[in-house]
Amino acid sequence: MNPGTSDHKVELIDPFQRKIEYLRLSVTDKCNMRCFYCMPEHFKDFEQPEHWLNFDEIERVISAFAELGVSRIRVTGGEPLVRKNLNALVHRINQLPGVEDLSLSTNASLLSRHARSLHDAGVSRLNVSLDSLRPQRFKKITGSDLQPVLDGLMAAKEAGFSPVKINMVAMKGINDDEFEEMVEYCIEQDFTLRFIETMPVGGTGLKATDHYINLAEVKARLAQRFDLIPGVMPGGGPARYVRVKGTNLRIGFITPISQHFCETCNRVRLSVDGTLYLCLGQEHKFELRPLLRQGISNDGLKNAIIEAIAIKPEKHEFRDKPDQIVRFMNMTGG
Ligand code: SAM
Ligand code: SF4
Hints:
By secondary structure, the protein is α/β, with parallel strands linked by helices. It has eleven helices and twelve strands. It has a twelve-stranded mixed sheet. β11 and β12 (285-287) form a beta hairpin. The structure holds S-adenosylmethionine (SAM) and iron/sulfur cluster. S-adenosylmethionine binds at residues 31, 37-38, 76-77, 79, 105-107, 129, 167, 169, 196, 198-199, 201, 206, 329-330, 333-334.
């Protein structure tokens, strides 16, 4: 496939015939929280600033992806709002031809200040991590205060984000007595709720087996209290949805462990240092930063991306090899 010689619209198809149309862009590996399942408490081994892709470099990479048919971009981290001038970057990405859907994953603690400007800059959808509504428990999980997050969520609503999706990592012995409460909160606030199974990433001490809950159990439990009916959610992500009858609430279940969704995987991840990771649970990667800094042409960059997609593995092996060490989640943003 040569992007320079074809008049046809080029698509990125991996060796398993999956069309790649979604890029998760990590704009920083730093975070103002320390969720224990994501990053070790005293983690300091962050990427050197001189290795961060600058905004021009990020724009070039996204532009190349967009020309190859990748129309959906999610900005993530680490905590993306700790990257300076994120609004300006978001605005630039939103202007790029071919980018049709721009979303952001955040812990929302800094969102009060930024919600409106991010919305104005073109972010259309927000995912917010929220594992507990109880301040002390929230602090235990994240090392941070809950209130700024709740304030950030209100600011997001006021700024017009719709839908706001709450991501709750379901953890036995940690927050498994709070699922119903979170459902009630999301009904009240008109948010969408997604439960996530814990993944054994980065060797943070959290093994899938330590706090893992199969979300089939969570769904069965919620069905005793709420009338759940099959539902769909536009967006093409890996969550399987139900709706709570008599309300607007949709609940999604993201089950990387109990029912993995690798056969429909449509995404790759770009870390802050310009490394393209081809799978969340595997080390297959391709470094774009050296090429960018050696002055590669746009066609050269597109060819490099095509070459990278050719090494996308078939699936993660979280279940078969839970001890396999992959990078921390803050490097690729989940
Ligand atoms: N800081 C932002 C946030 O928390 O939403 C964006 C980055 S965070 C790495 C993205 C998502 O990954 C969050 O929803 C978080 O709960 C999830 N995550 C992190 N570590 C995880 C793990 N070990 N298992 C399951 N989900 C995890
Ligand atoms: Fe930070 Fe998000 Fe990881 Fe929590 S899950 S430590 S908020 S990057």
